[in-house]
Design goal:
With 338 residues, the protein is an alpha+beta fold. The protein contains 6 helices and 18 strands. Among the domains are: 161 residues, Sandwich (Jelly Rolls); 74 residues, 3-Layer(bab) Sandwich (Phage tail protein beta-alpha-beta fold). The longest helix has 50 residues.
Length: 338
């Protein structure tokens, strides 16, 4: 028997022996040049650093995704606080006191023309078109709507303005009642015992305060407007503050839908208080000593067809008084005797 056939696997062992003899005969391998070894070392180190950076990026993305989702949720919640309507009130919440032109009411799937004295339920949408309207919220403030106004009555304490302008007068509202909030897509205005106008023109919002104070709330913070001030937010969201007069052309539209004053049997003092509130005029008697007696004069007649600034021409001369306007102040004086 030959040596390579003595046991199984002999062929494999012989091949390994032959390979060993060949390597031995070849002699030692030349050493790697130092420069080449450094290049290899630098390449391996660079690859290691890149792999480490990739793992860090994966970890950052792992944490960033939940944080981004949380931030988006917070933003949505803030937006929802301004834009999402609350549950609508049950039953009627307002009554139409006066309209100048056609006012339409949409509630659910039905739309109709609103008439004076009609009651408006919670969730109803009012549109004035080319007309104007005056309403009284249930146990709450008076509202006046300018032309081109869309207003949704959500509750006695909350209305949503989509376009146009609404004027709010809180005279006669009990202090225990909640403050009215006028909500728009650009911010929310809440009164503190006041007269004010909120006007939304496209993306621009303007709030003018005639009496008291108004708080403007929006995502970026809160601003407070005092009587005689205006807050304006432009389309870019920039807030500007300015002074505004208490009377004049900017407020004239409000008088065109002022509910009529019951003149018969009331005192001149009560009439002048109403006149000043409707026009924004300050009322002053030229002779303060005669004011107390003059205010007790009893009036007779009907001025229901006259706007407040027009009624003064009929009332004061009939009471033997003259009047003049001086920088927003109505100055009253007795007529001169001939």
């Amino acid at each position: 028997m030959r040596r390579d056939e003595r046991k199984p696997g002999g062929e494999g062992n012989g091949a390994r022996d032959a390979l060993a003899r060949l390597i031995h005969a070849a002699g030692p391998r030349p050493s790697v040049p130092a420069e080449a070894a450094q290049r290899v070392k630098r390449a391996v180190h660079a690859e290691w650093r890149q792999a480490l950076a990739r793992r860090r990026r994966v970890r950052r993305l792992f944490w960033a995704a939940p944080l981004a989702a949380a931030a988006a949720l917070v933003f949505w919640a803030v937006q929802a606080a301004f834009l999402e309507p609350p549950p609508r009130a049950e039953g009627w919440i307002a009554r139409l006191e006066l309209s100048a032109g056609t006012v339409t009411l949409t509630h659910g799937s039905s739309t109709r023309v609103l008439g004076v004295g009609d009651e408006v339920a919670g969730g109803a949408l009012l549109e004035t078109g080319a007309g104007r309207a005056a309403l009284r919220l249930k146990d709450g403030p008076a509202l006046r709507l300018d032309t081109g106004t869309r207003l949704e009555l959500l509750s006695p304490e909350l209305v949503q303005l989509s376009s146009g302008a609404v004027y709010v007068d809180t005279q006669g509202v009990s202090k225990g009642k909640g403050a009215l909030e006028v909500r728009t897509a650009r911010g929310s205005a809440k009164h503190v015992g006041t007269q004010f106008e909120v006007r939304l023109d496209g993306a621009a919002l303007r709030i003018r305060v005639r009496e008291g104070r108004v708080e403007l709330r929006r995502e970026s913070g809160t601003a407070l407007a005092e009587a005689g001030e205006e807050l304006a937010i432009d389309a870019a969201g920039q807030l500007a503050r300015a002074k505004v007069p208490f009377s004049g052309e900017a407020w004239d539209w409000i008088q065109r839908v002022a509910p009529p004053f019951e003149l018969e049997g009331c005192s001149l003092g009560a009439y002048l208080d109403w006149l000043g509130r409707e026009t924004g005029w300050r009322v002053r008697f030229e002779d303060p000593r005669a004011e107390a007696a003059a205010r007790e004069v009893t009036l007779h007649g009907d001025v229901s067809r006259l706007a407040p600034d027009q009624s003064v021409e009929a009332v004061l001369p009939a009471c033997a008084f003259t009047w003049r306007l001086e920088a927003g102040t109505l100055v009253i004086a007795p007529q001169a005797h001939e």
